Amino acid sequence: xxxxxxxxxxxxxxxxxxxxxxxxxxxxxxxxxxxxxxxxxxxxxxxxxxxxxxxxxxxxxxxxxxxxxxxxxxxxxxxxxxxxxxxxxxxxxxxxxxxxxxxxxxxxxxxxxxxxxxxxxxxxxxxxxxxxxxxxxxxxxxxxxxxxx
Length: 149
Prior knowledge:
- By secondary structure, the chain is mainly alpha-helical.
- The chain folds into two domains: 23-77, no CATH class; 81-149, no CATH class.
- It has helices at 30-41, 46-49, 54-72, 90-104, 108-131, 138-145; strands at residues 20-26, 75-81.
- The protein has a two-stranded antiparallel sheet with strand order 1-2.
- It is elongated and about 90 Å long.
């Protein structure tokens, strides 16, 4: 096809490319905290109380509790991009992934219960964001309110 038309496409936008970065977070939901509580309740503190040096006892206590925290509370990593809304926390994003997997597997009742939890977490996050905004900071208020529309 022959034509006499010519086109020139220019992108003048000064946009910064979308940057994604891994965001580690601790899963501090009730089941993991309960597991940590059970582990701490079964902990034998005689190895710490038998030590006469306070510094050694403190170091031993820190070592044991750090090990229990690391073994009972998982550290998860989620990739967050710059254009992700602020109310999508790493925990919310990980729960959204779990919910989507459950929906694809056909487990709609579990996915629905996760949706309710996700909604509550988002509402709590939004409430915290709104409580930090004052009437003097109009720019921040507009950014937060723009997510509603």
